[in-house]
Amino acid sequence: MASVASWRPKTEGCMMNRGKIVFGKIGFNLSGSSKLPETIPPPPPPIDQTTPTPTLHDETTEPATSGFGSFGKFSQDNNTASETSPGDLESMMGFSGFGKKAKEFNLDSLVEETRKSAVDRNRENIEKLKLQSLEEEKIKASLPAPNDSTKSAVTESKSQSEDEDEFIGPPLPPGLEPPKDAGPEAESEEEEDKEHWLPSSHELILEHGTKTVSALAVDSSGTRLVSGSLDYDVRYWDFQGMDQSKEAFRSFCPADGYPVNSVDYSCTGDKVLVVSGSQQAKVYDRDGIELFECVRGDMYLHDMARTKGHIAALTCGVWHPRDKEEFLTSCMDGTCRLWQTSRPGSQKNVIKARALNGLKTIPITCAYNRDGLLVACACDDGSIQMWDHRKSFVNVAINIKTAHTRGSDTSGLTFAYDNRGFATRGGDDTLKLWDIRNTKTSVHAKEGLFSRFPMTNCVFSPNDQMVMTGTSINKGEKAGKLIVVDRNTWNIVRELEVGPSHVVRIIWHPRLNQVMVGCGDGKIRILYEPKISRNGAVLVAGRHKKRSKQAEVVVSQQVITPHALPMFREERHKSTRKLEERDRKDPIKSRQPDLPVGKAGSGGRVSAGGSTLSSYIIRNMGLRNKVHEEGDPREALLKYAKEAAENPYWVTPAYERNQPQPIFQETDSGMKEEEEEEEEEEESPPSKKLKQQ
């Protein structure tokens, strides 16, 4: 034991004499002045007398309280005893004091405090509620126990009150009781029927012109309408800014002398395609400003695929339903062409329509399907041809050779919203429904629908359950009709007369739930119903006509120069009324007539009476010595010769002393002789002149 005691102080002294050991940024002080860890380890358990005394090997193998411990094998008990807490480890490594300690919250105490504060604040309300509950219990205890019949009556009344709406006041008469709801399913069905049924209770008329409205288009949002007519004009209508005057905010002529065959909005509504009877289609922006014009092809080339554009009159044009940069046009040169707005100088693709005999045929109308994967056209030989947009346009994907009568103009081709069917309006007075999965025969056909125009179209209803088309006025009829046909049964659901004119163009907008009809009398009739229609004509009908304010707009544009010199600065006028008042005071600009002159005269003018002496003399002398300029002036002077000779007054008395006898000019003969002598002298030679001298 002595050896052990003598050995331990040496080791401790050796450890105490060492300085601070540093490993990178971590340091540990091994001197005696190093602080002990904050957490004090628990005291060792009491030693029983029965436990053996530790040996030298046990003392050397137990872990050290400072430094890096001892090396070697340890028993499991020693390892567990040597484990330290995270706090001890942080203090041992030397970074326990860095940073701020996170604030600790006791959730239980916080919840208890909030509960107590809420109870203190609402103590009065809690007491009132307790009193009310006690009174209700007393009233229930005082009432007699109900029988079975009363219980059943109470339950029935509760069920009726739950089913029916609450009505305040006396009971209504039997005839005026509110209708009972049949259930949520019936309500949803009725709402769907009302939402997609034909809105025709109200009508709004827009005056386009005097000739047939041959083209109509509405943007996807339903705020603007574009119309084209056979009078060569295109008009823009804005439902948001229109009042009861119902005037278009822009009108222009895209191609003078050519009727407008088709107009269409892009899928985003920022561009408008205008197709007239000329060879070139035009694209305008939303406000009617021309963006570009498609190029015209070379008419001397036989192969239509070699030309950059159409060479004959256009028949139809539509935008791609999903791509705002692509549109399709059809022409009487036998081709349909795909265009890109980024390349108006040449088409993107050329599609040639072929008849049964392999020769070219004229496409009357063209269309995309709803997702833009099919390009379709209806030709004058009665065929309907479709191509796949994802492939080359050489082979036809779908070809219905005898869809309509040969030689008739198939004026309408539209696809259903489900992309499974499409409808065609033929020039042979028929309306047919087709299934795109089986195109050998039509699913349904309706005959006897007279059409006079090659642009009469057909549309599907927003719920895809009905097809609508229009008819022209036939012999013995007074008005054109809207024909609504059920898609499933192909029965006529409704016939509606629309004014005393033909029905040419139809649009059934799915968002507005309004029907726009272009008629043959130059009017656009919009059918709507306030309960189921939204915006559009409903907004216009609810506005009053604006009162025009006179002279409220500045006519000329003014350049504002705030730093100009005062002599060059122009006054800024807010309205023309002040300008007109100022010009009215200016006698030159207003062309004011001269005012009558007073006795004294004004403005540099002499009065009529002659108030001054000079004016009086001038006026009298002019009247007295007024010389008439009529006749010979010599005779006018000689008539005073006799008087001047007998009674000289002006000239003769002045020459009485100096020249009493007057000397007059010689006659003309003497003058002539002198002139002749002078001429002879000038013409004589110089030698003769010397001799004479």
Automatic annotation (TrEMBL):
<dbReference type="InterPro" id="IPR001680">
    <property type="entry name" value="WD40_rpt"/>
</dbReference>
<feature type="compositionally biased region" description="Acidic residues">
    <location>
        <begin position="673"/>
        <end position="684"/>
    </location>
</feature>
<dbReference type="InterPro" id="IPR051858">
    <property type="entry name" value="WD_repeat_GAD-1"/>
</dbReference>
<keyword id="KW-0853">WD repeat</keyword>
<feature type="repeat" description="WD">
    <location>
        <begin position="206"/>
        <end position="247"/>
    </location>
</feature>
<feature type="compositionally biased region" description="Polar residues">
    <location>
        <begin position="658"/>
        <end position="668"/>
    </location>
</feature>
<feature type="compositionally biased region" description="Acidic residues">
    <location>
        <begin position="184"/>
        <end position="193"/>
    </location>
</feature>
<feature type="region of interest" description="Disordered">
    <location>
        <begin position="139"/>
        <end position="199"/>
    </location>
</feature>
<feature type="region of interest" description="Disordered">
    <location>
        <begin position="567"/>
        <end position="611"/>
    </location>
</feature>
<feature type="compositionally biased region" description="Basic and acidic residues">
    <location>
        <begin position="568"/>
        <end position="592"/>
    </location>
</feature>
<dbReference type="InterPro" id="IPR015943">
    <property type="entry name" value="WD40/YVTN_repeat-like_dom_sf"/>
</dbReference>
<feature type="compositionally biased region" description="Polar residues">
    <location>
        <begin position="73"/>
        <end position="85"/>
    </location>
</feature>
<feature type="region of interest" description="Disordered">
    <location>
        <begin position="33"/>
        <end position="93"/>
    </location>
</feature>
<dbReference type="InterPro" id="IPR036322">
    <property type="entry name" value="WD40_repeat_dom_sf"/>
</dbReference>
<dbReference type="GO" id="GO:0005634">
    <property type="term" value="C:nucleus"/>
</dbReference>
<feature type="region of interest" description="Disordered">
    <location>
        <begin position="652"/>
        <end position="693"/>
    </location>
</feature>
<feature type="repeat" description="WD">
    <location>
        <begin position="413"/>
        <end position="444"/>
    </location>
</feature>
<feature type="compositionally biased region" description="Polar residues">
    <location>
        <begin position="147"/>
        <end position="158"/>
    </location>
</feature>
<protein>
    <recommendedName>
        <fullName>WD repeat-containing protein 70</fullName>
    </recommendedName>
</protein>
<comment type="similarity">
    <text>Belongs to the WD repeat GAD-1 family.</text>
</comment>
<dbReference type="Pfam" id="PF00400">
    <property type="entry name" value="WD40"/>
</dbReference>
<dbReference type="GO" id="GO:0035861">
    <property type="term" value="C:site of double-strand break"/>
</dbReference>
<keyword id="KW-0677">Repeat</keyword>
